[in-house]
Design a protein that fits this description.
Length: 96
């Protein structure tokens, strides 16, 4: 269960980690290896919003250049990416 106070505190301590970014990381933690489409369905948010957050995390823009996720293209269909948390991403999620 998400602890809102911890989420807000962590976001305040790390201004680049927005509530949306942290929520996305938590959803990835619960669904590792999922695609952006699957993640958006799980989170019940627009796929484009999730894709933007994933792209920003992948580039390190939402995390101060710290790689919090690992993204790999699907072997079966290059249009799809599968997402996992990196070790640093897992450590961050554990703090929530």
């Amino acid at each position: 269960m998400m602890n809102t106070k911890k989420l807000v505190t962590l976001s305040n301590q790390n201004p680049r980690l927005t509530i949306r970014t942290l929520a996305t990381l938590m959803a990835i933690n619960d669904n590792e290896g999922c695609s952006v489409s699957e993640l958006s369905q799980f989170m019940k948010v627009n796929e484009k919003n999730v894709a933007t957050t994933i792209r920003r995390l992948e580039e390190g823009r939402d995390s101060g250049d710290v790689k919090l996720i690992k993204v790999k293209q699907s072997k079966d269909d290059k249009r799809f990416k599968h997402i996992w948390l990196s070790a640093k991403g897992k450590a961050l999620v554990k703090r929530l």
